[in-house]
Amino acid sequence: VKYNGLVFLSGQIALDPKTMEIVEGCFEKQAYRVLNNIKAVLSANGGTMNDCLKLSVYLNDINDFPILNRILGEYFVSGDYPTRTVVGNVKLPKNSLLKIDVIAIDNSK
Fold it and tell me: What pLDDT shows up at residue 25?
């Protein structure tokens, strides 16, 4: 959804865009899939990961938080992380290990 110069991206889970099935495997593998999906959607809108203003992150297991932080460092290399809210120990759709909502700058103009 686009509104007033912003893009609101709802819950991205670890779906393989070719099969629309959850990527099998560990948290790390699913985290990369979620972030690559977000990157692809933002790119299709003319944006990049640097346009992210806020991430709402839902983790099946809060103990995966350090792994997520390390992986996020690969996507936000400037060190300018978007603001984040992280909630742990939640049941997610399709037994995904994480879900991320995004608010980003709309670059489609």
Answer: 86
Instruction: Name the β-bridge partners of 100.
Output: 12, 57
Q: Is 106 helix (H, G, I), strand (E, B) or coil?
A: coil
Which tokens belong to 13?
A: 């889970």
Task: Give residue 109's pLDDT.
Answer: 67
Q: Is residue 109 a contact partner of residue 69, using CB atoms and an 8 Å limit?
A: no
Dump pLDDT digits (tens) for 40-75: 999 999 999 999 999 999 999 999 999 999 999 999
Q: Positive or negative CA dihedral for 53, 76, 106, 20?
A: negative
Question: Sheet holding 6-12: strands in order across?
Answer: 2-3, 6-12, 98-105, 52-59, 83-88
Name residue, tokens 């899939």: 33
